[in-house]
């Protein structure tokens, strides 16, 4: 550590030595922080105290943000103000997007350009997908790998996805109402 203050912060943050706790003074809030700046951020985020609001000035729009950057992103996304459009550039394709990452996904999905394939590692499986998330879903549903079971709060039913639980609960409620 080059500075005494850095060493003191390190000891407090990592080892909880000589920590000065800053408690949130709001009623029924048990938040505490090691640094006063973190308490200030908590009070702004959770209790709207000490916040400078940034309002959208578009006619009829009531959006407001605690951070100027979030307002800028919102105005670009929702109102297309100061929007930098990204274009596909593939012959006869007029697709445009609000981020270069979305153009990359578009090119991979629609034009098979720079596709990165993810493969299932399970024996004898030939499954592949253009996202790692799809391979994880495949592994969970086809091979029971990496499954995080979801439990119905009303019975012993378990499912691999929250969506299945929601559908089940709908059927469960229907049976109870009969």
What does this structure look like?
By secondary structure, the protein is α+β, with helices and mostly antiparallel strands. Among the domains are: 4-47; 148-178. Helix content is 43%, strand content 11%. The strands form 5 sheets. It has a two-stranded antiparallel sheet with strand order 1-2. A two-stranded antiparallel ribbon has the order 3-4. β3 (54-55) and β4 (64-65) form a beta hairpin. It is extended. 2% of the residues are buried. Residues 174-178 have low confidence and may be disordered.
Tell me briefly what this model is.
With 178 residues, the protein is α+β, with helices and mostly antiparallel strands.
Return residue spans where pLDDT drops below 50 for at least 5 consecutive residues.
174-178
Order of helices and strands: HEEHEEHEEHEEHEEH
- What is the share of helical residues? 40-55%
Q: What is the number of E strands?
A: 10
- First-to-last CA distance: 70 Å
Structural class: alpha+beta
Q: Using the alpha-carbon principal axes, give the shape.
A: extended
Percent of sequence in beta strands: 5-15%
Number of helices: 6
**Mean model confidence by pLDDT:** 86
Please give the radius of gyration in angstroms: 25 Å
Please describe the biggest sheet, giving its number of strands, its sense, and whether it closes into a barrel: 2 strands, antiparallel
For the biggest β-sheet, the strand order reads 1-2
């Amino acid at each position: 550590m080059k500075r005494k203050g850095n060493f003191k912060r390190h000891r407090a943050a990592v080892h909880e030595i000589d920590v000065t706790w800053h408690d949130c003074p709001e009623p029924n809030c048990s938040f505490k922080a090691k640094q006063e700046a973190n308490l200030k951020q908590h009070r702004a985020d959770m209790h709207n105290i000490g916040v400078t609001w940034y309002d959208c000035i578009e006619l009829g729009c009531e959006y407001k943000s605690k951070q100027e950057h979030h307002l800028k992103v919102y105005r670009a996304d929702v109102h297309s103000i100061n929007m930098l459009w990204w274009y596909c550039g593939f012959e006869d394709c007029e697709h445009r997007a609000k981020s270069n990452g979305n153009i990359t996904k578009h090119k991979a999905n629609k034009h098979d350009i720079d596709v990165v394939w993810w493969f299932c590692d399970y024996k004898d499986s030939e499954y592949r997908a253009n996202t790692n998330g799809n391979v994880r879903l495949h592994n969970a549903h086809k091979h029971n790998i990496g499954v995080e079971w979801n439990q119905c709060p009303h019975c012993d039913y378990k499912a691999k996805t929250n969506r299945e639980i929601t559908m089940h609960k709908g059927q469960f409620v229907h049976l109870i109402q009969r």
